[in-house]
Amino acid sequence: MEFLDVLNQRRSIRSFADKEVPTELLETLLKEALESPSSSNTQPYKIAVATGGSCKALGQELVSKYHSANKISKQPLPLKLISAATSKDLPDSDFKPILGKYPPVFQERRVATGMGLYEVLGIERNDRKSRDEQMAKNFEFFNAPVAMFFFIHPGMKHTALVDLGIFMQSLMLAATNKGLGTCAQGALGMWRSPVEKRFEIPKGYKLVCGLALGYPDDHQVNEYRPEKISLDELLITEK
Ligand SMILES: Cc1cc2nc3c(=O)[nH]c(=O)nc-3n(C[C@H](O)[C@H](O)[C@H](O)COP(=O)(O)O)c2cc1C
């Protein structure tokens, strides 16, 4: 594909076809992404790649944890505290989640993006049940046959996050170029234990987020094109 077509065609895919990704193709994409720049070429990332039965099992465990934690969060306060103290299903992420609202301008964009997505899906704003069900799909990777979990070494501080972001974008573009779809997923950073149970995560590495990868299906959700900011909003005015 032409470079600009790849750049413009990449969009987050949230519904995947029941079609496996050949191992050789997966390896090719990862090798292409390894061409990415990184701070002093440190490449401070590691990836756990789940495919086949392992991907399915991991998805089932994450979905079950999501439902359980969601149920607890809706309990009245005293009960919630008791459940939280005894449950093994509360998020055990390596990075503290952003609590409460984002700063105003980002909160507005976040809400607009979420609302746009629900509109495409025909989900009403106050339809909590459908919204929960849609959220749960994150944890089974939107039916993707490949789930990736990205780790960084936090000893590299913020540059490791920059490096990982660049790597992920290279991977997403490489996948788009081959007719595949991806969705970067912060949601997949919420529970570390199910991934740790199945992979030998090197000491010190922290789970940042995940990514679903596979062949897009023709569900309307994949047509969603959230608006990007304008150059005016992007650029800082010179004094
Ligand atoms: C770091 C990161 C985390 C994300 N986490 C999620 C997620 O958990 N679930 C999801 O559906 N989309 C997630 N996304 C996708 C964004 O919502 C999406 O990139 C954004 O709305 C812009 O849409 P586009 O990717 O189609 O251009 C994430 C994207 C990034 C870069």
UniProtKB/TrEMBL annotation:
The keyword Membrane does not apply. The keyword Ribonucleoprotein does not apply. Belongs to the nitroreductase family. Keywords: Flavoprotein, FMN, Oxidoreductase. Residues 8-215 form the Nitroreductase domain. Transmembrane segments: none annotated. Its cofactor is FMN. This is Nitroreductase. InterPro entries: Nitroreductase, Nitroreductase-like. SUPFAM superfamilies: FMN-dependent nitroreductase-like. It comes from the Bacteria.
